[in-house]
Amino acid sequence: MVQSLFEELGGKYERQGDYLIPCLTVPAEEEQAIGIWGQRHLDYLKQYRKVTYTNLLTSGRLNAYLADINRQAQERFERLIEGMKQAQGITEQLKAENALEWTGCLNNIRACAREIVEKEIIFA
How far is CA 33 from CA 40, 57, 63, 65, 71, in A? Predict the structure, then answer.
């Protein structure tokens, strides 16, 4: 009997009823923590970049890729916040004098930084 390409490459089949089903497995990958940025990018890949998601998943690199995206996004987010705080003069002195104004300014900065990170890294 002629072997299929799958069998020539070392693949095996298992019989289920009258059918031969190939025994497929996904390569094991190292488990890494994926934060909120990685989760958002994962959702984006699943919804809009299905081929990329499938390629990363089947090659066993998805978790490492998402952990790297999460790290990059978090670093960019923190740098943006610090830069915007300095540019707008948001200091600890303002926090001590007027906590409500400081909170409003910081929330505005965080929202702006979140949008930038999502546009540059998460949804790119």
Answer: 14, 16, 8, 11, 10
